[in-house]
TrEMBL record:
Belongs to the short-chain dehydrogenases/reductases (SDR) family. InterPro entries: KR_dom, NAD(P)-bd_dom_sf, SDR, SDR_fam. It comes from Nostocoides veronense. SMART domains: PKS_KR (SM00822). SUPFAM superfamilies: NAD(P)-binding Rossmann-fold domains (SSF51735). PANTHER family: 3-OXOACYL-(ACYL-CARRIER-PROTEIN) REDUCTASE (PTHR42879), 3-OXOACYL-[ACYL-CARRIER-PROTEIN] REDUCTASE FABG (PTHR42879:SF2). This is Beta-ketoacyl-ACP reductase. Pfam families: adh_short_C2. Residues 4-178 form the Ketoreductase domain. NCBIfam families: PRK12826.1-2. Transmembrane segments: none annotated. Coiled coil: none annotated.
């Protein structure tokens, strides 16, 4: 295995933390971004807000200093929700979700691209959601931001595919996080009944897909949408 320099946005908690831990356990050099700059014990972190181009630039520059070289793998994981029905969705809530989830991922990919082109190696991994292609009531902003990542990854693939750079989307379904744990039991039961696997995923199951996409063995996979959803969204 080749140890890579991996940057995980929003790696301080939830799915991003599992991805960062799995990457480190596999022997990669890992830096996470957090908005506060505070990291869980044992993790290297840099401060960064993906809605701010200058902050993204500073986070990459700080990460490159810690690595002593360019960022080779970007996991664009930072994401937010601001759910609401279409009729009542405010411009501010629509824009905020697009700005973080889609434009934030674009800003990170753009900042990483020069170093990756020079190195003739790069892995851009965008954390989307089953909702991106399946849709979700009350989630027009979130779903649009997550499906936008597919166009982003596929256009990057066409632009940079000849330079040893891959760009892929991982689309998790329901994951056991604080968010899903808070769902009332009857809602959890109903969701699980709709998932062919009959259960939610662990964050580690998302991390395993990301780890593979970052590997040398995944060099010929690009522009793909990898579902980690127990079959919930198949066909989409
Ligand atoms: P959490 O809410 O637990 O964590 C979100 C992370 O994103 C935090 O680290 C947060 O940082 C960071 N973040 C938010 N806004 C910004 C910003 N402007 N700049 C930098 N970092 C930011 O999320 P999850 O772990 O549940 O989700 C991670 C990703 O997976 C998201 O993209 C989400 O959409 C996606 N996903 C989650 C699913 C689930 O079931 N949980 C299902 C499908 C997809 P801070 O600590 O500073 O707030």
């Amino acid at each position: 295995m080749t140890a890579r320099n991996v940057l995980v946005t929003g790696g301080n908690r939830g799915i991003g933390k599992s991805i960062a831990q799995a990457m480190a356990a596999a022997g990669h050099n890992v830096v996470i971004t957090t908005r506060s700059g505070d990291a869980p014990e044992g993790m290297q972190s840099v401060q960064g807000d993906v809605t701010d181009t200058a902050s993204v630039d500073a986070a990459f520059t700080a990460a490159e200093a810690l690595f002593g070289g360019p960022v080779e793998v970007v996991v664009a994981n930072a994401g937010i929700t601001k759910d609401g029905l279409l009729m009542r969705m405010s411009d501010a809530d629509f824009d905020a979700v697009l700005d973080t989830n889609l434009a934030g991922s674009f800003r990170c990919a753009r900042r990483a691209s020069a170093g990756m082109i020079k190195k003739r190696f790069g892995r851009l991994i965008f954390i989307s959601s089953v909702v991106g292609l399946y849709g979700g009531p009350g989630q027009t902003n979130y779903s649009a931001s997550k499906s936008g990542l597919v166009g982003l990854a596929r256009s990057i693939t066409r632009e940079l595919g000849g330079r040893g750079i891959t760009a892929n989307v991982v689309a998790p379904g329901f994951i056991e996080t604080d968010m899903t744990a808070e769902l009332p039991e009857d809602r959890q039961k109903a969701y699980k009944a709709a998932i062919p696997a009959g259960r939610f995923a662990t964050p580690d199951e998302v991390a395993a897909a990301v780890l593979f996409l970052a590997s040398d063995e995944a060099a010929y996979i690009s522009g793909a949408v990898i579902p980690v959803d127990g079959g919930l969204g198949m066909g989409h």
